[in-house]
Design goal:
This protein is α+β, with helices and mostly antiparallel strands. The chain has two domains: about 100 residues, Glutaredoxin (3-Layer(aba) Sandwich), CATH 3.40.30; about 120 residues, Glutathione S-transferase Yfyf (Class Pi), Chain A, domain 2. It is about 45% helix and about 10% strand. The chain is built from nine helices and four strands, in the order αβαβαββαααααα. Strands 2-1-3-4 form a four-stranded mixed sheet, covered by helices on one side. GO terms for molecular function: oxidoreductase activity. Belongs to the GST superfamily. Pfam families: GST_C (PF00043), GST_N (PF02798).
Amino acid sequence: MTDLSAFPITSKWPPKDSGVLQLYSTPTPNGVKVSIMLEETGLAYEPHFINIGADETWGEEYLSLNPNGKIPAILDPNGPDGKPLALFESGAILIYLAEKTGKLLPADPAKRYETIQWVMFQMGGIGPMFGQLGFFHKFAGKDFEDKRPRDRYAKESARLIRVLETRLEGRDWIMGEEYTIADISMLGWVRNLIGFYGAGELIAYDELKNVPKWLERGLSRPAVQRGLEIPKRPA
């Protein structure tokens, strides 16, 4: 069994089985990307719930794994060359897990880079913009008298989701017939935008036809349903 004691994070969240991948996360749109990916691939792993509301990502143990203080992060005892690998940033983790398992990322070089391109679209656009819209519409920002920040993010979010709408024309998945990490990267964000954030009306979601069907297909996958609830929130 691999000794992971050299990683300070294991002192706060000790592994039950140090021979399997350790996931440090919360079931947010960013966090569930990795739990869904792990469920889809069937890779053995152990989830650890990180309480972001209690600022656990800013403790020295978590920062030793991710100096950016964000979830998710992983610690794979069976990394490249058989050595443990610590990794943060959900997009990087998706690519790593796809290459490790040989799943959900096309082998064809051109299609591989096209898939990664859409993951980067999510990382640089969908995630940050939808997250800001959520803040200004649902959380503390909703009380700001000046609605220009909210409207700015609503306008950009509406634009971005229509980029996705156009891409999905005539396609079941972002890459066509093949479900990939590009889809996994976005499912949680679109679900949250119209569900938890309640921002569907702001972006005229009801005008779309391709994105809602894609979202329904994605959410019907058993691995997605499981991944959306991992790690379990404490009762």
